[in-house]
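User: Can you predict the 3D structure for this chain?
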Amino acid sequence: MLQYWNWQREYLREVYENAMLIIGIAGGTGSGKTTVARSVIDRLGPGKVTFISQDNYYKDHSHLSLADRGAINYDHPFAFDNGLLIEHLKCLKQGQQAQAPVYDFTVHARSTTETVELLPNHIVIIEGLHVLSDENLRELLDIKVFVDTDPDVRILRRVLRDIEERGRTIQSIHQQYLTTVKPMHEAFIEPSKKYADIIIPEGGHNEVGIQLLSILTEKYLTGENWSRA
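Assistant: Here is the predicted structure, written as structure tokens:
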């Protein structure tokens, strides 16, 4: 009997050591997805979490002219190479490393010189507009989170970000918001909220929501009882 319990303890230890918790964080543009993800990572400590941005998985259109690239609807789910993203997540679950592409928003193309090394940590957090929109991607997620923030706040954040980080003009941001950002949010992103296990209103400003998600993740890291529903 003692031998059996020793075997069971060793078996459970191996299962835990090889286990991986994948958290998906979705929400509209400027909702605070990255802030929520970074806040959880900061609470857990360095080296314990692999962070993946869905933005790096935009399909590569480097074969097109810059003008043609600029005309693409980047807010539609089909703009993302979710096949590659799913492949990388499966690699991580198998204990293998992966090389994520790096997307350059100033030229609407993947970098030809940079990649991001993804390591198979116990915790993987992936954030992006359409993390919950794709059924095949959803199936790999253990915890599904939706960050829900007022549209006026989101558009103001997007304006600041696109000007400061992506070299955009007010005119181009305004046009894109009306023609693709808002329609795609209403058609795909907002409806994906129904798949969320956790909804965090007001993104990075919701300290209680972030703390609850962090506590749940910490319990998993420490091996406390936690099971996928």
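The first strand starts at residue 21 and ends at 27. Strands lie at 21-27, 49-53, 98-104, 109-118, 123-127, 143-148, 198-201.
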